[in-house]
Design brief:
binds fe (ii) ion; Jelly Rolls; three-stranded antiparallel β-sheet; 11 strands
């Protein structure tokens, strides 16, 4: 495991519909979330997300894209959860991260997402363990110690929209690097012909 930093997240503005009501198709999900007095059960979150039928048009006011990287659009937030729409342009990606202390589940609403899962090794390095292509409707649930990266690897012009629940809201997360710097000696061995020193 290569823990490089602890990145704080910045709360987004709530983009609930008029009057503070959430989107109608999210009502069953929000009813459960609003009843929370502690951390949400991951299996319940997964089941509720699987049952939600949603398209971009259902949450259009929360489908805003960023200029630099994916954009987190908070739909509703309490002390015990945050519900967000994440909007990804082509090549937008998360850092490699885990979710220690937080129940995390999300559903692909539009486009194809890619999840790369990593495992820790005795060496301290992390190793890619699986790559999952996530079609619309796919629900991903992450346990505390799961290490993963999510990205929009589709061609330019093709968006990815995902609906996320974090319980409780993320305050910080552990971020990892796939590779560590190699020694100068090792780099030399890979230098162009005539430039190698050993
Ligand atoms: Fe994640």
């Amino acid at each position: 495991m290569t823990h490089v930093s602890s990145a704080a997240t910045t709360p987004s503005m709530c983009r609930c519909t008029k009057g503070g009501e959430t989107y109608s198709r999210l009502a069953p999900l929000v009813e459960y979330l609003d009843s929370l007095t502690g951390r949400a059960d991951l299996k319940v979150l997964t089941g509720l997300l699987e049952s939600v039928q949603l398209t971009r048009s259902d949450i259009a006011p929360s489908c805003l894209f960023g200029q630099k990287g994916y954009k987190r659009n908070t739909i509703r937030k309490t002390d015990w959860y945050e519900l967000l729409a994440l909007c990804w342009r082509s090549a937008d990606r998360t850092p490699i991260h885990d979710h220690r202390g937080v129940s995390c589940a999300f559903k692909v609403i539009e486009g194809e997402g890619t999840e790369i899962r990593f495992r820790e090794t005795p060496s301290g390095l992390i190793c890619p363990a699986a790559t999952i292509l996530m079609q619309p409707g796919y629900v991903c649930a992450a346990e505390d110690s799961d290490i993963h990266e999510v990205a929009n690897m589709q061609a330019p012009g093709i968006d990815l929209i995902t609906l996320h629940i974090y319980s409780p809201p993320i305050k910080s997360m552990n971020v990892y690097e796939f590779t560590q710097p190699v020694s100068e000696h090792c780099k030399d061995a890979y230098a162009a012909p005539g430039e190698a020193h050993g």
